[in-house]
Amino acid sequence: MSKLPAQYRFIDLSDYGRPGGRWIARMLQDTRFTPIHVTVLFIISGLFAIGCILHGDYVLAALFLILKSVIDAADGELARLKKTPSYVGRYFDSIADLILNLLFLLAFMQITGSTIIWTLVAFIGLQLQGTLYHYYYVILRNNVNGDITSRISEEVQPIALPGEKQSMVNLCHSIYNVLYGPFDQFIHWLDPEAVHTKSFPKWFMTSLSIYGLGFQLLLMALLLVTGWQQAIIPGILGMTLFIFVFIAIRRLFIK
């Protein structure tokens, strides 16, 4: 099930794991597995990838990185199939992604000899890239009657959806805001008028999808298996600069 009505769907370069994710979701639809269980599975896959990176098993690490992207697509698909949207699941997924992203970069730092300063700067850049993509994508989804589990602003605690406890929603929301709040606020500060944009061209969203986490993990996997692991952290730093290019395009040409 897509997050967008058919006429607004675009080619999402970061979403290559969606077909596999849908297959996993269909296999689990009539079981006791919940979307939260699937999120735990992608965390395990990410941890296996980190272990392989640190032990020099780069091909296996690449496979686990890609598997993580596939499983990451499955939790949301399962929630839609079971008709059990969840703020807890949405926040848990994002919190897990951020922590894994930091651990991935720390593992790359370990094998490449990069400094902790540049690694942390790359982490900030990686999160800002994902935040910009998420910001525009959520605006699009909310404005064209797409999936509304994600919100443009997460400052206000949401009301728990059926099947989840308000206390857990509040806890996950608070953790999410601590981890993601500064990135969300910075991107909103860079382009506050984007919220008034009715829609975004498909070519723009496809181009921007290189900032999606799935595409980033695919690049990491490709650089690992081709022996270019030294380029991962500098590459993330370089891609971060294009944030300002995308925002300039939006402000000048997409109203």
From TrEMBL:
GO BP annotations listed: phospholipid biosynthetic process
Transmembrane segments: 36-67, 115-136, 203-225, 231-249
Official protein name in the record: CDP-alcohol phosphatidyltransferase family protein
Alphabetic keyword roster: Membrane, Transferase, Transmembrane, Transmembrane helix
Coiled-coil ranges per UniProt: none
Species classification: Bacteria, Pseudomonadati, Bacteroidota, Flavobacteriia, Flavobacteriales
Keyword Transcription: no
The family this protein is said to belong to: Belongs to the CDP-alcohol phosphatidyltransferase class-I family.
Keyword Transit peptide: no
Family matches, as Pfam families: CDP-OH_P_transf (PF01066)
A single Gene Ontology CC term: membrane
GO MF terms held by the record: phosphotransferase activity, for other substituted phosphate groups
Gene3D superfamilies with a match to the protein in the record: 1.20.120.1760
